[in-house]
Amino acid sequence: MKRRLGTQGLEVPALGLGCMGMSEFYGTADEGEAIATIHRSLELGVTFLDTADMYGPFTNELLVGKAIADRRDQVVLATKFGNMRGEQGEFLGINGSPEYVRSACEASLKRLGVETIDLYYQHRVDLETPIEETVGAMAELVQEGKVRFLGLSEAGAATIRRAHAVHPISALQSEYSLWTRDPEPEILPTVRELGIGLVAYSPLGRGFLSGRIRSIDDLEATDFRRRGPRFQEENLRRNLALVDEVEALAAAKDVTPSQLALAWVLSRGDDIVPIPGTKRRSYLEENAVAVGLELTADELERLERAFPAGVAAGDRYPDMSTVNR
To answer: Which of the 8 DSSP states describes residue 46?
Structure first.
């Protein structure tokens, strides 16, 4: 089952695979299992792979490149630039300057071991560089054949319009799930007006909607979710009540909470493609089932009542200053 992102010809499966956690942020990494997960993903038709230069940092692109080295033609490959990090993992700021766009792309192509990136995103908007300059440089990469389609991530409506006027934007990547419905009032109408697809990251609420996290102690010491506002004590207690609703409805339908949560995102429109991240084959296989799952009008109404916009307790990030700009 394919979905179109934008009007420039980019087609991807209805479900993608977020690769970030295979290298960083979600506890211990296991390269062997990660590569096996990517290979299994391709077998299941989940051929839309999402990475970024900052994941690792830099090592996630190397991992993905290694996994697809002998099967590049099976993959729709997306990566991102703009969040600068040092070799020790330190964050160095956001950069959208034309010079950086070009150098970042060359470095990603080398790490991935490919000649062309299918979908190239600006990871975060650089307020110091006009978006027209950033997208102008990205457009040059398209003209040179180094990139096929362009995307933005966590951009605000006005920025999206300005960017799209320079070169067609095929996809906007933003967080979207039952407990993060922030794109609905302004972002979704904007991208739909412009014919831009939405790639939904963290469609399982950073794994929370799976029901597998009942306490912060369920997370490894190195897991970045331990710092997340929604995982702190009082917020966590309130948010667990939301997960209970997902679990109850999933049990009644004889599916898993993850499958139900993904089916909801998939139901929001054919121009929306969720990219749940996982580093394990078992969770990948569980998630893939959601593509064939239909929710009834009654089930959708029940979820609507349980998850009105803004229902989750706590911000998405400890620092929200770099999103929706």
So the answer is: -
The answer, yes or no, to whether residue 231 has pLDDT greater than 90, is no
The pair phi, psi for residue 21, each rounded to 5°, is -65, -10
Provide the pLDDT for residue 227: 79
Residue 251 tokens, joined = 């049990």
Q: Is 121 a catalytic residue?
A: no
| Side chain identity, residue 34 | A
Q: What is the pTM of this model?
A: 0.95
Which of 26, 55, 201, 283 is the catalytic position?
Answer: 55
Q: What's the pLDDT score for residue 323?
A: 79
Q: How much of the chain exceeds pLDDT 70, in percent? A: 99
Both tokens assigned to 97? 């300057």
Structure tokens at 250: 């999933």
Residues 6+ apart with CB under 8 A from 125: 82, 94, 96, 131, 152, 154, 155, 156, 159, 322, 325
- Residues 312, 175: Cα–Cα separation, whole Å: 13
Phi-psi region of 296 (alpha: psi -120 to 50; beta: other; left: phi over 0): beta
Quick check: helix, strand or coil at residue 245?
helix
- DSSP-based three-state secondary structure for 275: coil
* pLDDT higher at 68 or 25: 68
Burial zone of 154 (CB within 10 Å; 0-12 exposed, 13-18 middle, 19+ buried): buried
Per DSSP, helices labelled H in the chain are 31-43, 59-68, 98-112, 131-143, 157-166, 187-194, 233-253, 257-267, 281-288, 297-306
Mean pLDDT calculated for residue range 291-319: 90
Q: What is the pLDDT of residues 73-123, one digit of tens each?
A: 999 999 999 999 988 889 999 999 999 999 999 999 999 999 999 999 999
